Amino acid sequence: MTVRTTPLRKAFDHRMTAPGTDEAFLAAALPFLAEGLAAADEPPPVAIAAPAKLDALRDALGADTKAITLVPHTDWYTGSAANAVARAAGHLAAHAGPDGRIHLLMEPVWNGRAGRSTRESAEWLRYEALANLLFAPTSTTALCVYDTRTTAPALVAAARRAHPDSGAYEDPLRLAAELDASPLPRPPADARRLPAPTTDAVRSWAAGQRLGAADAELFAKAVTEAASLAPVTTTLLWGEAPACVCELRLSRRVDDPLAGFVPPPPTTPPPGQGLWFTRQVCAYVDLRRTPDGTAVRLQYG
Fold first, then answer.
1. Which residue from 69, 137, 222, 251 puts its CA 20 to 30 A from 240's CA?
2. Cα 89–292–189 angle (5° rounding)?
3. How far apart are CA 165 and CA 167, in angstroms?
4. How many Cβ atoms from other residues are within 10 Å of residue 154's Cβ?
5. What span, in angstroms and rounded, lies between the C-alpha atoms of 169 and 13?
């Protein structure tokens, strides 16, 4: 009698490659995808990359292309870093094998939203660092692509600190704390003060700042869910569409760096975890804690 054994569960495997040519990209991508095709109990691998890279993969893979899902990275990365976490988690839940087994080749748009400002770059680096904790319960294998032709050298160097195979890896919580240590700009003197961060009040203000009805609703949801992190003492709003900002000053510190990232259980989410749902549907909300942890700031757009 033949007894089939299930492969031992492995940990989240978070890799990085920084090619500077098409040939270097293929040299890293093709063995990775072949590894995924040969892996037990896994669905076919997924390659999320720039269209030109997908064309190069089609040419190199030939008949094997049909076995691999190819996704233009502008179709996958449609919003903030937090939204990318939700997108990846949703894909694993719907398509991965046991324990989240799947190979994902992933190239965010480093010359677009991910690298367009200091704030955006910091959010993406936090996402890369915290991914090591968020996806630790899974057996997913990810290869993150940082093309040095389109990615700033400082961003590539910082990303190495978030990938265990880079030789420069640092503890994710230490890296996230370093990113959070940068002081946030002070709110403007004319920031609107609300008595309480209610959904109706935030929605009405956002609509008055020319945020569309659907976006105003989502921004209001994000604010009211963020208010569950701790009792709110002050609510400040400023900015105009699309960059609307809300700062919630809290009566106690928020120390959990994963607040708003960890998916809630199937039942009612505990305080601080409802943001997961909002981040799945609200692609353009970033949440930052102040360095002392006594306030959170949400920026839309």
1. 251
2. 100
3. 6
4. 10
5. 13
Q: What is the mean pLDDT of residues 253-269?
A: 63
For residue 280, is pLDDT > 50? no
Beta bridge partners of 295: 249
* In contact, 298 and 245? CB cutoff 8 Å: yes
Supply 149's token pair.
Answer: 């032709």
Query: Closest Cα to residue 249, out of 190, 197, 182, 185?
Result: 197
Identify whether the C-beta of residue 282 lies closer than 8 Å to the C-beta of residue 276.
no
Within a 10 A sphere around the Cβ of 142, how many other Cβ atoms? 21
- C-alpha 271/C-alpha 289 separation (Å) is 16
Given a contact cutoff of 8 angstroms between Cβ atoms, the answer to whether 231 and 244 are in contact is no
> Taking the CB of residue 284, how many other CB atoms lie within 10 A of it?
21
